Amino acid sequence: MKIYGYIVWIVLVSSFAGCKSLCLKKTFRNEALGDAYFKTNQYANAIKYYEKAYQRRKEAIVAFKLGESYGLNSDYELAEKCFAPYIDNHQSNSKYSKLYAKWNMCIGNYEVAKKWWLIYRDLSHENIDNRMRSCDSAMIWRTTNSPEYEIKNLTSLNTGFSEICPAFYPNGIVFASSRPGMFFEKESGATGEPYFDLYGATFINDSIFSKPSFFSLSINTPEHETAAIFDTTGSVIYYTKGETDTTNTLKIKILQSEKKLLTWSNPKQFVLNDSVASFGQPFMNKKGTVFVFSSNIDGGYGGTDLYISFKNDIGWTKPENLGSIINTPENEYYPFLTDKGDLYFTSDGHIGLGGYDIFVAKFSAQGWTKVENLKMPINSSFDDLSFIISPNMAYGYFSSNRKGGKGKEDLYEFVLKPNIKK
After folding, report:
1. Comparing C-alpha atoms, which of 248, 278, 252 is closest to residue 41?
2. Which residues pair with 236 in a beta bridge?
């Protein structure tokens, strides 16, 4: 009996060791698959495998990989939760310190963010004055700001998916959405959602719009279509077309199309595009003489800068960078010019509340001389972007992934409060 018991014990130990070995193999296989997706910018796909790996192997390295993927997919709260149990034991890692500071800013934990920005500064010796000033300013703005505008979620347009990039259109708006549509079969490995298409909706009353409809079969494709602007008649559209390369990196260009009777023409490349850089988020003034857009043209100040071009008798002038007052070492997107020349845009490089914020640079005889944060309630600690405003400055729209929305990103309307003059 003793020999029998010993044999049983050996079998059980061997079985346990075999199961443990198999579990480890599955863990490392899932982590390797997550790494492969991460390297090709497919963060949503990477998350699926990092989550499986972390369930079996709750270690810092897996948690950090999972957290970074969440953060790059704009899931800042989940990113912070992944980092939190392990970050204190990895204070010497400048990358993790920087990411943890960033995630905490994006969820409004400014005191914690400031602590980790200081740790990052001591490790990297990088100038992070704007980050420190952002933390200090945000702590004041969230308690003392007196908002001029009331904010409303456009529930008649938003879904459980993403809605972004509103644009004025005769009697309504056009926007981009990742809701299931005509080309639902293609899903982004980066976001886990369908690719964006353009949709239109007619204004009814009091922030209510008609049911959104697919904008055009000539314009929407299985790839991304976002960020549109129309001429004053609504018969010419300029918009952002995005396609992914073999590394799942999004390359964007500006396309244009003309409406003839009820049909939009086959799109063509806008003349300012080139074969190297990305060009997107176009804005054209009412006269059709000024064109502003974002691009990563070589020689800029950061990842993506804002550029301007003017139309003359020959055509469009060579794009000019808007300079260091507007552009930063980070990213600037979504320009919108008012009739007075004030420039609204999105940035994550100026002093802000966290994530992307919306800013305005007022125009004067000296040009754009100062950039101001729009503060709360238009901005939040999350990502706020693609701002447009009516000619009378009384209302407008933007998109945000702040808490309380219906989907990952929602459209919001802002309305000037009574008795406030602009």
Report:
1. 248
2. 258
Q: What is the pLDDT of residue 14?
A: 47
Alpha carbon distance 211, 203 (integer Å): 10
Q: What stretches of 233-383 adopt beta strand conformation (E)? A: 236-244, 250-260, 263-264, 268-269, 279-284, 290-295, 305-310, 320-321, 332-337, 343-347, 357-364, 367-373
Whether the per-residue pLDDT at 3 is higher than 60: the answer is: no
Q: In order of start, what are the domains of the chain with their CATH numbers?
A: 2-144 (1.25.40.10), 149-416 (2.120.10.30)
**Euclidean distance between CA atoms 398 and 376, whole angstroms:** 13
- Report CA-CA distances (Å) from 380 to 105, 164, 231, 252, 333: 10, 16, 31, 27, 17
Is a pLDDT exceeding 70 seen at residue 1?
Answer: no
Examine the pLDDT at 8 and tell me if it is beyond 50: no
pLDDT digits (tens, 9 = 90+) for 369-404: 899 999 999 999 999 999 999 999 999 999 999 999
Coil, helix or strand for 138? helix
Residue 166 Cα distances to 158, 190, 239, 323, angstroms: 12, 22, 12, 26
The kind and range of the H/E element at 50 are helix 43-56
> Is the confidence at residue 350, as pLDDT, over 90?
yes
What global pTM score does this model have? 0.91
Q: How far apart are the first and last CA of the chain?
A: 93
